[in-house]
């Protein structure tokens, strides 16, 4: 029994030892911790970083695409979401050559989970920022979506955290927040008053080990997962904010 316990402890120590340090990983991409309080009020629109995980490896790249999706085809059913900013948007469905509007709103992302289709919409304009999450129970049978909850912040990016097979929350990067909708349809605010706000527009989000990583201009934000915290680290290129 003692021998088995020793073996388990030894193997566990090897796994922990092999887990790469996030600072070291970011340094491989020429990114180092940058004091958030020194960012100031300047806006940054270039040199975007995109994050993703492929075969267990973290990839940070300068060329990438948004993880959001506003079009989805299911058999002969096609969903199309539009987002025209302050001029509005909508979700429509095309079936048998007939188009029908299902809901109004600036559609940010269409997320299929099982048979369900989650619709995340919202808008940040002037002093207003908000949105909502709705669901179609069976995406093969289009219907008016059921609203699950309002969002206190406009959504920018949406990500399904599949780390656990038995609990897969929807993670939403807001205009100034990080939010979570759990499988029980309960909304939690994981982080509020995000430093990116209007200054650094998020490009992508992924989870790597114990952090949610958000791609931003000139760098990557790391927020502890799965519950999030106020302890955010911004890894930036040396030339950032010069």
From TrEMBL:
It comes from the Bacteria. This is Uncharacterized protein. It comes from Microbulbifer thermotolerans.
